[in-house]
Amino acid sequence: MEIYTASRVVLTLDAGGTNFVFNAICGGLELITPINTPSFGDDLAKCLKTIIEGFESVILKLKSKPVAISFAFPGPADYDNGIIGDLQNLSGFKGGVALGPMLESYFKIPVFIQNDGNLYAYGEAKAGFLQEVNKVSKKQFKNLIGITLGTGFGAGFVANEKLLCGNNNIGGEVWLLSNGISQRNYIEEEVSTRAIINNYCKYAGINDTQLFPKDIYDIAEGLIPGNREAAYKAFVRFGTHFGDALANLITLFDSLVVIGGGLTGAKKYYMPAVMDIIKGKFLNGQNRLIHKVYCLDNKNDYQDFFSKTVKNITIPYSKEIIEYEQLPKIGIGTSKLGASHAIALGAYAYALDNLNNRTIKY
Question: pTM of the full predicted structure?
Answer without folding.
Answer: 0.92
